[in-house]
Amino acid sequence: MPTPFRDKTGQVFGYWTVLGFAGRDSRNATIWNCKCICGNEKKVIVGSLMKGKSKSCGCMQYKVTAEKNRKHGLSGTPTYKSWHAMLQRSEGKGGHQSYVDRGFTVCDRWMSFINFVEDMGMRPIGKTLDRINNTKGYSKDNCRWATPIEQANNKDTTKYVVVNGEKMPFMYACKKFNVTENCARHRLRNGKSEQETFVKQ
User: Fold this and answer.
1) Residue 90 burial by Cβ neighbours in a 10 Å radius (0-12, 13-18, 19+)
2) What angle do CA 62, 18, 52 make, to 5 degrees?
3) pTM given for the model
4) What does the alpha-carbon distance between residue 140 and residue 133 come to, in Å, rounded to a whole number?
5) For the residues of the chain, what is the DSSP string, one character each?
């Protein structure tokens, strides 16, 4: 017989409103469908609700953190913008729900902008924040300041070609051999080999 439990539908925990029962976890603890004050819905385990470990989908923590970090006087700098964008991506904002789905979180230390600057330094001109290992989240050990080409070469979807016996990213080959991306794609679609696409025969 399933262990009985008290229905929490309609109850409010922090910024969560419980919508209904969603099942049990491997330890038989109940899981509840919840709706955050911002409109996001998520399944939350009962212990996190009852003990206050989960108070929202993360949006309220983000707002509180951002407010605290405005006091440093660097909110208009490129470094702050990169930090701010990192937090938004980790919360699924701006069309980045895949970051949430794949568990790309920000380490606790970097919820503070000052800590972020201490670890990364100020953002160099022409570079933005890049995760070194695309299967992991944001932390000092997994992030760097990188150029657009370095970031493009680091994507899971990067297309590689072999030219003069060297394997290289498609975009890098275009730049190296002074061939536009559209021209290179057109040549490949029309049956040209990768070598013929980038090097005149």
Assistant:
1) buried
2) 50
3) 0.47
4) 12
5) -PPP----TT-EETTEEEEEEEEE-TT--EEEEEEETTS-EEEEEHHHHHTTS--SSSHHHHHHHHHHHGGGS-TTSHHHHHHHHHHHHHTTGGG-HHHHHTT-PBPGGGGSHHHHHHHH-SPPTT-EEEESSTTS-B-GGGEEEE-HHHHHHTSTT--EEEETTEEEEHHHHHHHTT--HHHHHHHHHTT--HHHHHS--
Tokens of 17: 């409103």
Label residues 120-157 b or e (16+ Cβ within 10 Å = b).
beebeeebbbbbeeeeebbbeebbebbeeeebbbbeee
Per-residue pLDDT tens for 26-68?
Answer: 888 899 999 987 788 889 999 888 888 888 877 666 666 666 6
CB within 8 Å of 37: residues ≥ 6 apart: 15, 17, 56, 59, 60
Distances (CA, A) of 35 to 19, 38, 52, 146: 7, 8, 15, 37
